[in-house]
Fold:
Amino acid sequence: MKKSFVFLTLSMLFLFCCSDDDGNQPLEIMTTFKFSHNWDGALVTNINFNAIQYTNANGDLLSIERLRYVVSDIVFSNNERTIELDMHHLIDVTNNDMVFTPQESIPSGTYNVSFTFGLDNEDNSQNLPDLNTANFNVPQNLGGGYHYMQLDGKFVNANMEEQGYNYHAIRAADNPGPNPTFPQDTFFEVDLGSIDITTNVEIEVEMNIAQWFKEPNLWDLNILNQMLMPNSQAQILMFQNGQNVFSLGDVSQ
Structure:
């Protein structure tokens, strides 16, 4: 009887300890990313497309007819761990595809959250069937791979005529042809800052479209409107203007 009591006591102690340990383990969290778009604070959706109603910092009147871009490699980091989600997603405002949930969960905690605008050189060299289907490819004479962004529309030029523009971001390339060279990387990391993630969460990422035309490089659509993909200097200007395009919006848990 005494042995049974000791065994029962030890068993209860073991179960208590295990239960306590399990209670201290971080929860596994699913994250959802929602991308929204604005023009200096005014909401932009595909409902607003195809009408000349925006004025950029240079004073050019313009419309938006298509906007889609790639985000990739989401990173959650803190003092205990760094978790990189090796993924990519095509944000397509035209078709209202602006929300996605990565398949991988993360432990609950407070993280610095970042992602890559575009594709790093390793990812850009891979065969990505979804981007092939979306016709997001870059010609081989410019290095191949994929677009980072396509922003298209019309603007009112200096002759007061409507003219098309194609603000397309890719990997900057010189010497178009069989052996292009690459003066610098033009994908970039977007740092959303610190987020306390305690349960399944939706993280809003805001893009201010007006910023692409604003600073540090004031964009004159009369000069830079089309044929920007083979123009490495234009690509570098886009890279510079993109540094402040994205910001953290609402975090819903």
